[in-house]
Write a structure and sequence with these properties.
Number of domains: 2
Largest sheet: 5 strands, parallel
Order of helices and strands: HHEHEHEEEHHEEEHEHHHHEHHEHH
Number of strands: 11
Strand content: 15-25%
Helix content: 40-55%
Radius of gyration: 21 Å
CATH architecture of the largest domain: 3-Layer(aba) Sandwich
Oligomer: single chain
Length: 312
């Protein structure tokens, strides 16, 4: 799997965090919500990931006129056969890019809920299973918000992590220029072609990564602190209106194990938990009116949270 991460970093220059989070979501069997300005290689990142593994990729551009059936598929009547036949939609691929997901109304966004949570799609009275290897990466543009539909909390909670990407540094930008010129001449790094079996074996190995009881207690206390913030810190209690769900606990557990495994360790440390906590909690915390009025960001609240809960 490290060869896959190295390949992503060779092709997607200056976005090491995004590359790592993509591999992390793949290994943790979760989905990503990526927020960043246009042109920051979000689409290229997941298409490059698809080239590096044994799986297919499909991009869906979310627009206001999109229908749920455009995502899931629908029953099509075949007059020559005299019956209806299910025509699968783009959701029936291994890797899905839901580009600008907040451009579509809630009924279209909700078409992803069952797929992301249960790995299946219901059309009429029939349930169709999705591929075992299945990852959705949804993107949002933080700059242009006119005419967008905010994602409801129920859908946000389905995303394993909320990753924010920023502009690359000057040195990385020069490397991007070099890679863009090489694309014209055909000079590209060779993808590793990681098999689905390899990914499944890695998931099993990661699930067996050791977590000590005191480290697990620290993980649970972090989530509890989002639900009972006043008991941990007065400042925290004023900032958080609603805390994280048990999905956050599971996500924090899975991702901290992946973080340890990618670092070459067979045990989880509190540093692993702290490393992934911001991306896991950023979209799950609902801030109070006072915090929003004072311009307090979710990142600042998460920093307060990590400072308020004693590590193992």
């Amino acid at each position: 799997m490290h060869s896959l991460l190295d390949y992503l970093n060779q092709v997607i220059v200056g976005q090491e965090q995004l590359a790592q989070r993509l591999v992390m979501a793949l290994l943790a069997d979760g989905h990503l919500l990526v927020e960043g300005a246009p042109g920051l290689a979000k689409t290229k990142a997941i298409s490059t990931l698809a080239r590096g593994i044994e799986g297919d990729f499909h991009r869906v551009q979310f627009t206001p006129d999109l229908l749920p059936a455009d995502i899931t598929g629908s029953d099509i009547y075949r007059p020559e056969q005299g019956r209806f036949e299910f025509q699968p939609g783009p959701i029936f691929h291994n890797l899905i890019l839901a580009d600008e997901i907040n451009r579509a109304p809630a009924k279209v966004q909700s078409a992803l809920l069952e797929a992301m949570a249960e790995g299946q799609v219901s059309v009429g009275s029939t349930i169709y299973p999705l591929p075992k290897l299945f990852l959705v990466m949804a993107t949002q543009n933080p700059i242009e918000q006119e005419g967008t539909y905010p994602l409801p909390e129920a859908q946000l909670d389905r995303f394993l992590m909320h990753v924010r990407v920023d502009f690359p540094a000057a040195t990385a930008e020069r490397e991007i220029l070099r890679l863009a010129r090489n694309e014209i001449t055909g000079e590209q790094p060779l993808p590793p072609h990681v098999s689905e079996l390899t990914i499944m074996k890695a998931r099993t190995c990661i699930a067996q990564t050791y977590m000590a009881d005191d480290v697990e207690t620290y993980l649970v206390q972090l989530i509890q602190a989002t639900r009972q913030p006043a008991s941990f810190s007065g400042e925290l209690g004023e900032a958080i209106e609603h805390g994280a769900s048990p999905r956050a606990t599971i996500a924090l557990d899975r991702c901290s194990r992946v973080q340890a495994w990618l670092d070459g360790r067979d045990f989880v440390t509190p540093d692993d938990i702290r490393a992934v906590a911001p991306d896991i909690l950023r979209h799950r915390l609902i801030l109070s009116y006072e915090a929003e009025a004072n311009g307090v960001s979710p990142n600042q609240v998460i920093d307060m949270l990590l400072a308020s809960v004693a590590s193992a």
